[in-house]
Here is the input.
Amino acid sequence: MDQLIKIINQTEFSKQDIVTMLCAEGEDKKLLFAKAKEIKEKEIGKKVHYRGLIEFSNICSKDCLYCGIRKGNYEVERFNLSDAEIIAAAKFAHENKYGSFVMQSGEISSPAFTDRIENLLKKIKKITNGELGITISLGEQSQETYQKWFDAGAHRYLLRIESSNKELYYKIHPKDEMHNFEKRLNCLYALQKIGYQTGTGVMIGLPFQTMEDLANDILFMKTFDVDMVGMGPYIEHPNTPLNDYTAELMPLIKRFDLALKMIATLRIVMPDINIAAATALQAIDPIGREKAVKVGANIIMPNITPGKYRNNYKLYNNKPCVDEEPEECVSCLDVRIRLADASIGYDEWGDSKHFSKRREV
Ligand code: 5AD
Ligand code: FES
Here is the structure.
């Protein structure tokens, strides 16, 4: 206990310190969670900010070994929302004072896709009077494409590194040019250089993953100087190659617990960044996201994809809210957040404080 108290009150952390935090149990775990909550409230306050998430297409050119919408999964019915549907979702986010909007899809790189996104960004900026913050999460693209989208109005980008351990990265992705670790890293550097608030993240509880890997993931985020993080438990999907390794996994509930400890530890290591309560947490525990808010997370991404498409954007088993419509999530979430001793920053962008400070330097 004394050892943990000493560690959580430091401002610099070694890999071993982080491993100790991730292994905390019992009273130590309570202390870790309480410290993370205290730091969050001191640095950021009690507010949670929303990012209305639209998963607008499940068409993907990649084949990540864990992902339910990978190209090689022929069981999925592919969909692609129309521009009008995407714009309607942006309006919904704006009208419901969500403050920010996230556009996510499977990974496609083509001039037509680049142009489509560029036009959509410009239109959404215009119809929401520039008031709606826009995050995009559209995978690996060229620097020119990232720049075009930035100039069109996107100001945040999410690209999870999935694992900062190169060897592990290649165990969970096909070994080909389409899934190159260095390319992914270079994309993250390009995004940061362009001026995006840059977000990354990892999956927690992957087969072959060690505590040391997770500690290195946190150190990677710190060294990269990330502004936002979204990370959640790995959850197997039956139609994926990684599903063959289910016997190697820790039980779901342990993965969930470890994800909470990752969030709390990251909050202690990087006090002023934005940390999202990943939806995958809710796939394991119905109040998983609220639990994450209590231990350091400050961002929630309510799904605002029209209900009829949700069933076909299942990256993992047991994805929550697939039968709901966006309207149903509005009041449900408000109550949930209040129960987690937090309030919602309606109509605010909720930018990462870390980003503003980084810009000033
Ligand atoms: N379990 C948990 N998270 C997953 N993702 C993809 N597949 C899974 C899975 N089986 C996450 C990846 C990706 C994000 C959009 O969803 O981290 O970057
Ligand atoms: Fe689509 Fe990995 S399967 S990006």
Observations:
- The chain has one domain: 2-9+17-23+31-360.
- The first helix runs from residue 2 to 8.
